[in-house]
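Below: protein 1.
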Amino acid sequence: MAEPSTDPPAYIAIARKWRPQTLEEMSGQAHVTRTLKNALTSGRLHHAFLFTGARGVGKTTAARAFARALQCAKGPTPTPCGECGPCRDILAGISPDVVEIDGASNNSVDDIRNLRDGVRYLPAASRFRVYVIDEVHMLSKGAFNALLKTLEEPPPHVKFIFATTEVNKIPETILSRVQRFDFKRIPANVVAQRLRKICDAEGVTISDAALQMVARAGEGSMRDAQSLLDQVISFGGASSDDKQVADILGLVDRKYLYEMLRGVLQAEPLRCLESIESVHDNGYELAQFTVELLELVRNATIATLSEGARRFLDVSEEEKAILLDLTSGVPAEQLSRTFQVLLDVHDQVSRSTRPRLILEMAVARLVAIRPAQPVGALVDRLVDLERRMRGQGVAAPRGRDPEGERR
């Protein structure tokens, strides 16, 4: 009798374990999921769909969820039951009627001919035969041509779902035969909310500010952010503080960024120089420091514009409160000028062999920035000065008086 296996169960990455199973569970793509759900409800189902967008924004996930919605025994329905045979088979990846094809490795004319031959057969156990072709832009020109006729007049039991990151490489003849859905990059706040649900379910303790850092590092990709969260958990275990998360992501500790900005806005060069010294001594790249400082000044500027503009801040509520306190009484125009100076400094720092020297010398420029006075106020002061000079019998400069008359 064989001994029972003592090997630990295989680990499933967060991005796979927490992949949405239905259109309803998807985050950040409401414009896509709403249209697909309406089509399922009304029965107005096109025969070919194209999902396009950046990596990790949910194209393949949406294709699989849509396939389940089409094949569910209670459907087509926006809310598949998850219990019938087609639902279980698709979840397990063993459905004979949902065929996933990698366009990069199946891109020849012969591959498409085999697909075209299979299209003729009725579904084995479901309502449709669904073909999901990932990275469809990798098909050769001949393969696209071989697909055209089938795509234009497919049998009623066939549905095509294409996914691509490079829609510009797909021929117009194909684009004109599909319903196109453009997936957007997912906002950092939406990504952070999803990461919070995952952490709560996994029993992992990470602050909202740290999750915002992970979400921003994902740059709009849910999959990238979840992979980074996996890395953070592997390093810190069930509990990771903000500094650990920043170190893992290669980010600068936020306290140094805020100290630098505080020194700039309050004209305290010593505070700025101490921040630069701390960043340098802790081994952070100064070019990365200036990049994150630019982002912080951008957030500070938006915080001062209006209450409505603050919804564009990709920061936690705690950090938003710090920003509002720091920028109280600071005009947006001063922050805008600070951003322009920093942009020039970042360009020099990123190219210099002595970045610390460049950044320290830039402190003099940064702390000297003050709000520009309105032109109207300057004119009023000049007029007042001229009147006082006339009252004292001093000849006023030649030119035009406020009424525009030549003297």
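Below: protein 2.
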Amino acid sequence: MVYSSGWARPSGPGSPQFFPGAAPAPAVTERRPLISEVQTDRFRAFGLHNIGQRPEWQALDPDLRRAVEVVGRVLPFRTNQHVLENLVDWRRVPDDPMFQLTFPQRGMLRPDHFGRIAALLDRGDARERLAAEANRIRLELNPHPAGQLTHNVPSLNGRRLAGLQHKYRETVLFFPGQGQTCHAYCTYCFRWAQFVGMPEVKFEARESEDLLAYLSAHPEVSDVLVTGGDPMIMKTKALRRYLEPLLDPEFERVRNLRIGTKSLAYWPQRFVTDDDADELLRFFERIVAAGRHLAVMAHWSHPIELEPEVTREAIRRVRATGAQIRMQAPVVRHVNDDASAWARMWRQGVQLGMVPYYMFVERDTGPRNYFEVPLARAHQIYRDAYQQVSGLARTVRGPSMSAFPGKVRIVGTTRALGQRVFVLELLQARNPEWVRRPFFARFDPRAVWFDQLEPAFADDAGFFPHWSAPDQDAADDAASGAA
């Protein structure tokens, strides 16, 4: 395969001049090497146990290192050399969006939680006591929101299937056991509980037998979403073992295979220079040749993730298999709460042949207080970004909350019967009859999640399972402006 060359920025994030306090980079333009010239290092993860080996870490302010060491005992921390060398702009730390996205920050824990862990570390308490305290804090962080454990886990012949979720009629989520980690962890990740060593809150399936049996019993399912973690952390041999049975004629009604992944951003070498990259792409081709639609549900949080040449080559190679790449991510404070960043990311994505798909609202789990954006502002960011792009990028939907009833989209705000309201709709729903039926919530400029909203009118109450009016007549009067 022949790879094309490109031109780098004046200096790369991995160079010494990106360290805080260093001299500015010289104003020269350096040739970006051909993909074929890039050293094909094997993937290497960095966490609390070995981040000290990196020069970037040693150059950080001691208070920043302290925050990572404390918060990283509660929330998962993992990065790799691609993120450190090609994505983080070390001149902008700690405000750099990719640093915020991949390194734990002090504000992600409540002050009392931070203090409890810091005190144990300072005293040199045993690992077991630290882990117990961390687990107590984790259970206060709503590890599985929106009924993931209570309502989404399906059963077959009276047995709960721990490696599956089935919330929407057409789509089953599958959690292969070997795909329950990632090349790097997003600090906002709503699946953080998968990575902290608490088996009682983890989804995983060791084999695909339960998935196949469940699909046989549920002919209404047309889509299987393979998720994690990140399925692309697996070697191709393991991925094939899980997915090849779905290509049999018996499961022809499963028309769409989706793979949820951040690998195109965090480790694009998976599709270019890894030792089984070509084998992986041949498997993608086989899925498409079998008549299935293969959708790579790629998480892109910031336009900087699209800049490396190896990333663009990975995108090109995946698309050449016949797979489609869709773009999605939540809007999160400190990372991408900026309309211009979203517009630039969508424009670049379309140029590279991808489809903007979803802007989500950060879920009510983990360090939500650090990342949450008021719903009114999230909608303004979406609207301002949407106005900046052409129709080809306006396939994106949002801002959408993956709440208990389903994917609740904020359509906008307006006035109705004398009050200001949010206009909402469900893009997906536990009850399919609710899909695309407009409903209304009272406008609240401070609300950051669906369960903080109240129905605007009596007819809307059924869409709000978390809400009950103490006096329905009073609620009706208030809604009509008569009270």
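The chain has a mean pLDDT of 87.
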